[in-house]
Amino acid sequence: MKQFDLIATATFGLENVVAWELKDLGYDARVTDGRVMFRGDLRDIARCNLWLRSADRVLIRVGEFDAPDFGALFDQTVDLPWAELLPVDAKFPVKGRSVRSKLHAVPKVQGAVKKAIVESLKKKYNRFRFDETGSFYGIEVSLLKDRATLTIDTTGPGLHKRGYRRVVGAAPLRETMAAGLLHLSYWHPDRPLIDPFCGSGTIAIEAALISHNIAPGLSRSFASEDFDWSDRNVWRDVRQEARDLKLRDRRAPIMASDHDPKAVRLAQNGATDAGVGAAIRFNCQEVSELSSNLEYGCIVTNPPYGERLGEDEEVEAVYRVMGSTFARLKTWGFFVLTSHKGFERNFGRRAERRRKLYNGRLECQYYQYGGPRPPRPGEEQQTPSKEQPQQVTTDSNSATPEAPSGVTSVSTNDVAPAVPVGQNPAPAGNPFETFVADCSATPDSISFDVSPLEPPSEE
Ligand SMILES: C[S@@+](CC[C@H](N)C(=O)[O-])C[C@H]1O[C@@H](n2cnc3c(N)ncnc32)[C@H](O)[C@@H]1O
Fold first, then answer.
1. Is pLDDT at 444 greater than 80 in this prediction?
2. pLDDT band at 167 (very low <50, low <70, confident <90, very high)
3. How far is the CA of 275 from the centre of ligand 1 (A)?
4. Looking at the predicted structure, is the pLDDT value of residue 377 above 80?
5. What are the beta bridge partners of residue 91?
């Protein structure tokens, strides 16, 4: 099969996560200038579109060259093998962008590239007109420091569009970002997970997809399936392989809660649509009510930021409650994404690590508190490390209930990032006992499914 130079695009800060995902899928990936480069054939294009969790799209790199002026851009674009990729009736709009380059008028750059591709096709097809009535091939010209990269998009709508979400909440995280946050945390499918500000449930749903090794793109289609040289059998085989790789065993519990009953209902619907409704425990509660008798879990969350005027005090109070509440989970790690500059001060503790990430256009920090390492089999249980929040100074007067004294230990042998293709873990005991709240008192009450975890449904 023909080999292509491929690029997986990623949002700022997630490039290395995408490279790691590609390596885990078996590709030799390298990061240059914010792009993750690798090589592959048609089957690899299908596999990566189906399996990459944190990448935005998969592009075919048609060519790359220095383009300090329009002459260089035009001539070198004409010389690329467009007729091998674009059929005579191809619809091929050209998008463009330019960063720190002499050719900065993007519409002119797009126009020049379009003309050059037509010129190239004219020579090969011996025609003067192209009606563009056929399949869609999205071309992009990207200029970075006078170097042009010409690509064809194989993805179509961005990879964050998993195809499972019909309705979204107020400030949903992109699915690709949620997957990236999970990969950047110490969470692993063998460790319990809680998102106490779940909103529409993106983090918990992505975690459940990882836990059950469900390919995130399994329920959607991709632009390159309609390419004239695409092979339906390849896509069919790759999808079948993904269905075969689903893990049905019960893994460490994933729990999601929010104080807004509408958000919880939305999250539950999203999880059901994603085929992981039974893999996540949903709850309607204030963050101050959070407690768990499980050990060595992770909280991965995206609390309110207070972006609007006058909301600062409110969110700072929430962060103080987080500080005192999380402090009770002595063996847990905490991973918090927020744009609010006063997070650490109010949470009551400096993060061990911070990473700049963008939630849409909003600059955020990902505050990471790793927590103690889970004991290896046969090893004594660790006491919480010095860094663990034994005591957090905060002026909140949260009414957090005491965590139950009985301790359920969850099999957690590893703190490596979540892996797409993993071994089945030992099933956890009955982890949900302590995470069931009663919402019946709320006007908009939600009924929680307290039945045992079922394997996710077939599709
Ligand atoms: C930024 S949104 C989370 C968005 C979510 N990551 C998603 O993908 O949809 C913050 C959420 O925190 C919830 N929230 C705010 N204050 C809370 C509190 N004190 N206790 C529990 N939830 C709270 C809000 O209802 C909102 O859904």
1. no
2. low
3. 23
4. no
5. 136
Q: Which two tokens stand for residue 438?
A: 């009663």
Whole-angstrom Cα distance, residue 59 to residue 281? 37
The verdict on the CB of residue 318 being under 6 Å from ligand 1 is yes
**What confidence score (pLDDT) does residue 380 get?**
66
Ligand 1 mean position to 111 CA, how many Å? 44
The CA-atom distances, in angstroms, between 441 and each of 56, 253, 444, 448 are: 42, 26, 8, 13
Assign 140 to helix, strand or coil.
Answer: strand
- Which amino acid does the sequence have at 390? Q
Q: Which residues of 46-72 are buried (b: 16+ CB within 10 A; e: fewer)?
A: bbbbbbbbbbbbbbbbbebbebeebee
End-to-end Cα distance, the chain? 30
Residue 295 burial (10 A CB sphere; 0-12, 13-18, 19+): buried
- The closest-lying atom of ligand 1 relative to the alpha carbon of residue 202 is 8
> Is any atom of ligand 1 closer than 6 Å to the C-beta of 260?
yes
C-alpha 93/C-alpha 87 separation (Å) is 14
Q: Does the structure show a pLDDT above 70 at 447? A: no
pLDDT tens-digit readout, 13-56: 999 999 999 999 999 999 988 899 999 999 999 999 999 999 99
Burial class (CB in 10 A: 0-12, 13-18, 19+), 302: buried
pLDDT tens per residue, range 67-91: 999 999 999 999 999 999 999 999 9
Q: Hey, what CATH topology would domain 169-212+248-377+385-401+412-459 get? A: Rossmann fold (3.40.50)
CB 180 within 8 A of CB 151: no
Q: Does residue 209 surpass a pLDDT of 90?
A: yes
Name the pTM for this structure. 0.84
Closest CA to 229 of 74, 36, 53, 81: 81
Decide if pLDDT at 198 tops 80: yes
Q: Is 331 in the pocket of ligand 1 (CB under 6 A)?
A: no
In this predicted model, what pLDDT tens digit does every residue of 317-326 receive, in sequence order?
999 999 999 9
Q: Which fold has domain 4-153?
A: VC0802-like (3.30.2130)
With bands split at pLDDT 50, 70 and 90, how would you rate the model's confidence at 310? low
What are the sequence ranges of the domains in the chain? 4-153, 169-212+248-377+385-401+412-459
Instruction: Give the pLDDT confidence score for residue 63 in this predicted structure.
Output: 98
Rounded CA gap, 8 and 15, in Å?
9
Query: Which token pair is 262?
Result: 């509408």
Helix (H, G, I), strand (E, B) or coil at 277: helix
The structure tokens 């007729």 sit at 83
Name the residue with tokens 């195809």. 163
Q: Give nearest CA residue, ligand 1 atom 7.
A: 172
Amino acid identity of residue 447, one-letter, is S
